[in-house]
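I'm stuck. Please check this protein.
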Amino acid sequence: MVGDIRDRDVVAAVTETALAVEDSRIDILVNNVGDFRPAARDFMHSTEDQWQTLYEVNLLHVLRMCHAVLPAMVNCGRGAIVNKKAWCPRGDLNPHAR
């Protein structure tokens, strides 16, 4: 399944698909966060919209996915959630710093 994980409907569809394939069980959720948008690299020229996108991609989807799968995990009496950062920027994050 391919989709924008920032979209609540995509989160619901991913969860429903996993539950249908796995007999109403979800044993593990891995939130692999890794989008480091230019907003964080050039703070001085960044916009609020860029930071909103960064927030949605790197944090809010984790909340949505956890909320979506937790009921199934609780019903089964087990489950694991792994949150990891997939990418780390290299170089100077602030080109204006001296």
The two ends are 45 Å apart (CA to CA). The CA atoms of residues 3 and 10 lie 6 Å apart.
